[in-house]
Amino acid sequence: MDAPAASGRFTGSFTQQEALPGAAIDAAVAVMRGGRLHRYNLAPGETGEVAQLEAEYRDWQGAGYCLALTSGGQAMQIALRACGVKPGDTVLTNGFTLAPVPGAIEAVGARAALVEIDATLRLDLDDLERRIADTGARFLLVSHMRGHLCDMDRLTAICRAAGVSLVEDCAHTMGARWNGTRSGNFGIAACFSTQTYKHMNSGEGGFLTTGDAEIAARATILSGSYMLYDRHGAGPSAEHFARARYEMPNCSARMDALRAAILRPQLRELDRNVERWNRRYRIVEAGLKGDARLTTIGRPRAESPVGSSIQFRAPGFSQAQCRALVDAAGARGVELKWFGAAEPAGFTSSHQSWRYLKPQRLPATDAMLATLFDMRLPLTFSEDDCALIARLIREAADEVGR
């Protein structure tokens, strides 16, 4: 736990995660003592940590197949390739997301066509229909950005009617649900991240899940299986590799045994941690609603989120006031990110910064991002910390808005 908050100022860290569970530390030590860190470096008859993790995550997610990878970004690149994206293809994605999403599209040689977001930060499904018609795109990499699920029933109906293959970026929605169905179980493939700031922490890492055996086989070969696909814990049977083993390039994106070992105990605690995040989220959200200058983001009744971060807007503020709000909150120990800044900062950027893409006009998205703020809610924060942080943000907004 961070140091206790001083009166009038928060003294905790927005980047400090909880310590790994003792079981994770013990498992990591056991792997290091054994020296077999590569996922395929196994003793005869041994089922390695990575294969066990894949089977456990498959069962937890309720997916047909699971592949453990080096990062969520690699999961997206491999998913796109495995689903049939070719160089020059158009792939639709959110105008509001983080750089690894358009980066994955660019990395496989495809072209990203950006879709507007609505007032709740979710994909604008009316604009999606227009973009499908205008571009003829047959792939959508939907980013559940900052944990906000759009109407997944309507989204899947749109994709099905238009013949669009849906791939889900679930980096921010591991454990979230829409009408009771887990995020990641709507499209033909889903990608998850276990980077430090996500819902399980292995520094870097990720998963690809799918219910399609052919996609799972292609993804496994792409990950760099060296034809050792029979050593996977949640992969398809051997006949599905008949073509993939000759056609898919080796991208060397395998998860190692050390990361798998520390993730398995965390998976067992994930459902409990989802509720812990949501309690913190609700406290901050309730506190921010006390200031007329600030607007929180609505949550649909069908959505069961994971509140590991919170977003809010200051719709009446100018650019100068938005900058001042970041500074005023920072002076009180509260670290806010602002998506309306002209230059990218840390993990925060907007589509104007992705200059490897063709420039695209997104007036609705730009208007939303101009006054949009973002804040992490690590589990090292106590519930009292969260109440204090909300009060300090309100004080900062009052100072700037006078």
Which terms summarize this structure?
402 residues, alpha/beta, Aspartate Aminotransferase, domain 2, Aspartate Aminotransferase, domain 1, 2 domains, seven-stranded mixed β-sheet, four-stranded antiparallel β-sheet, 12 helices, disordered N terminus
What do you see in this structure?
Helix content is 38%, strand content 14%. It has 402 residues and is α/β, with parallel strands linked by helices. Strands 1-9-8-5-4-2-3 form a seven-stranded mixed sheet, with helices on both faces. Strands 10-12-14-13 form a four-stranded antiparallel sheet. It has a three-stranded antiparallel sheet with strand order 7-6-11, with no helix packed on it. Helix 1 packs antiparallel against helix 9, helix 3 (72-82) packs across helix 4 (100-107) and helix 10 crosses helix 12. The two termini are 35 Å apart.
Estimated radius of gyration: 21 Å
CATH class of the largest domain, named Alpha Beta
Structural class by SSE content: alpha/beta
Enumerate the strands of the largest sheet in spatial order, edge to edge or round the barrel. 1-9-8-5-4-2-3
Q: Give a quick account of the main beta sheet: strands, pairing sense, barrel closure.
A: 7 strands, mixed
How many structural domains are formed by the residues?
Answer: 2
Roughly what percent helix?
25-40%
What general form does the structure show?
globular
